[in-house]
Fold this sequence. Notes:
Elements: H1 2-24, E1 34-43, E2 47-56, E3 61-67, E4 73-80, E5 86-90, E6 94-97, E7 108-114, E8 122-128, E9 137-146, E10 150-152
Antiparallel strand pairs: 1-2, 2-9, 3-8, 3-10, 4-7, 4-9, 5-6, 5-8
Amino acid sequence: MVKGGLTTLVILSLIFVIGCSAISGQENTPSPGNIKVLREAELGPEWNMKQMNVTVDGGGKASVLLRLADGNKVDGFFYLEKGGIEFSITADSLIYESNGTESKEVVSDRFAFTASRAQGSTYVLNFTNNDNEQGKVTVFLEVIYPVTGSVFIPIETK
């Protein structure tokens, strides 16, 4: 019994040491960003609205996920007070990409789409800040979606 307990203790110690060293090796991975929900509201019996601030580090990316059913419609917009960003909407394939300057960076855009079973049920709003010198940018995002849908913010791993 003592031998089994000692073996378990050694295995748990190894898992802890190996796991911690693997996690610490990910320090140079850009963070997915900081997303803060500012306001949520029901717009009648069929629609929800979320307003968020999405902070994206220089050289980083942040994503907001929408879970939708076939035929659900989504409408939204975003803007930056300063700087520029790349924006796209993807599901099983690219659905929408903002057309900015030659670098594809935009300061604001409006989007609308209808979910399709062929594209899957999860749609991703991607904000990419490729300019390391620009530093952090904050995006104000508003999304209007059906009450049957939901918005998810991926958790940050460090």
